[in-house]
Amino acid sequence: MKTTIIMGIPGCGKTSIIELALKKLKGEYKVVNFGTLMFLMLKEKKLVKTRDEMRKLNEQIQIDAQEKAAEKIADLAKKQNIIVDTHCSIQTTKGYVVGLPEPVLKKISPDQIILIEASSEEIFKRRVKDNTRARDADSVEGIEFHQQINRNLALTFCVLTRAVFSIVHNKTGRLLIGSKELAEIIHA
Amino acid sequence: MKTTIIMGIPGCGKTSIIELALKKLKGEYKVVNFGTLMFLMLKEKKLVKTRDEMRKLNEQIQIDAQEKAAEKIADLAKKQNIIVDTHCSIQTTKGYVVGLPEPVLKKISPDQIILIEASSEEIFKRRVKDNTRARDADSVEGIEFHQQINRNLALTFCVLTRAVFSIVHNKTGRLLIGSKELAEIIHA
Amino acid sequence: MKTTIIMGIPGCGKTSIIELALKKLKGEYKVVNFGTLMFLMLKEKKLVKTRDEMRKLNEQIQIDAQEKAAEKIADLAKKQNIIVDTHCSIQTTKGYVVGLPEPVLKKISPDQIILIEASSEEIFKRRVKDNTRARDADSVEGIEFHQQINRNLALTFCVLTRAVFSIVHNKTGRLLIGSKELAEIIHA
Q1: What is the mean pLDDT of residues C119-141?
Q2: Could you tell me the CATH number of the domain that includes residue C142?
Q3: Mean pLDDT over residues B19-24, rounded?
Q4: Is A166 in Cβ contact with C95 (below 8 Å)?
């Protein structure tokens, strides 16, 4: 059984590329969105009603929820291959928040960490077009910087867990190629 | 109570920008210089008389002093907001020495890590002008490299502690803007 | 007694520069190739006959072998200065595998970590010429990327162990200068 963490900044096309790669993987993998799992676990405990309420929770409750979600994933991974869809870091007004701090990461204990990257110009264009989500368009330089930060963080994650590191480039108009590459790396 | 670590290479203008930011923060924060704290603790134990003597101490004594200083900071942080002014790494003839190795870092347990950066050309010019301190002017490339190293180290610090990461740019002639940004990030 | 880890990607000229540096160090240092040590320990236990068989072993056996080799090095380091010749990360079809994951690294507990780097163009040329080893020539960009990854990983290693970090540049036609610099840093 294998646990793969897939990360990428908003607008890199992570969701689309994972969906397409999954079709090539013939359903042997269960995708778990880390944020959604945390939300469902907190909702069940009646601590929140909506996702937005999560970030307003007491910090210790958020930390506990993260660790509980990580334990849940480790538990699921005993019986099947898991793909964890999550953020390497989250850009906030306070700065960059690490998506998977050491204790959370070690609980998940991934075998593989894959970063989905796209050109910063393309991500910028996608964010500007995307009016459905309340996304900060940022600047091309800011996007470049965030992707660089995520590379550094992901490599630290690998030192702490032995996970194998890869980057998959998601180029506009080449989603098929990217998803094929992603499927091959996951299956390797 | 919040602990903020602020780091930056010699000549980035860290001291000036912190001083100015503090005025905007209305004195709610106590600044602790990590090196000074270590020195005072070692001096009190009669192990050194001057700061320069610190680096000549037996390595294990230096390590113990670092950890004791970190514990002192954690203790102070129970009662007030702390800003730790320190080095991310120190350039020596032996190579780059990490300013906050894992055990020291975990004892401080920062909520926030802020790097002060300036353009490498500006830092080079400041170092050349500065005759009062025995600073190695280095080269523009060497300064660029040191700042890049510090970004990598600071991000690893964040994975190990959950600290939120930010960079504040300290541009020549724009100290007011930089210090305002720094104050806002500390206060966020 | 001092433990120095020296790392560099295939084609950076690590072996040559270490050999030459050693002559300047007057035999006070014992060089241990990490992969060879693992191989010999596994061979003695009759688990493998050739080096190639190592990567086909059960993953847990590989992990144990790595940790046992690290313990052996720590043991040797009690009596003499050790230079560990190893890989920071290994490029595989699955992605980049970290050469020294946290537990292995902490067992070795290095005082110093040195990366040998060369220009990516030069490494590319050396790999193309080198027909004796089954090396993937990769692309100049791929080589550049691998060296960048290794910088990030090596810095994380330093945070986890207090090791002092250096890079030595191995330029074609300047092996003497590079090896002299390496010897000085090791001896510092």
Answers
A1: 82
A2: 3.40.50.300
A3: 93
A4: yes
Q: How many whole angstroms separate alpha carbon C186 and alpha carbon B177?
A: 44
Q: In what order do the strands lie in the sheet containing B89-92?
A: B89-92, B95-98, C164-169, C112-117, C3-7, C81-86, C29-33
Q: Dump pLDDT digits (tens) for C141-172.
A: 999 999 999 999 999 999 999 999 999 999 88
Task: Mention every residue, 6+ apart, whose C-beta is less than 8 A from residue B61.
Answer: B47
Please report whether residue C72 resides in a domain. no
Q: Model pTM? A: 0.95
Q: Convert the pLDDT of each residue in C16-66 to its tens digit.
A: 999 999 999 876 899 999 999 999 999 999 999 999 899 889 999 999 999
Mutate to test the interface with B, among C3, C156, C165, C181 (most CBs of B within 10 A): C165
Residues of chain A positioned with their CB less than 8 A from the CB of B166: 94-96
C-alpha C39/C-alpha A161 separation (Å) is: 23
Kindly identify which residue of chain A lies nearest to residue C100, measuring between CA atoms: A159
| Residue B174 CA: distances (Å) to CA of B9, B13, B16, B120, B170 | 18, 11, 12, 16, 7
Domain count, chain B: 1
First to last CA, chain A: 13
- Label residue C60 exposed, middle or buried (CB < 10 Å: 0-12, 13-18, 19+): exposed
Short-list B160, C33, C8, B109, CA closest to A156: B160
Q: In terms of residue numbers, what domain contains B109? A: 3-187
| Whether B156 and A152 lie within 8 Å, measured CB to CB | yes
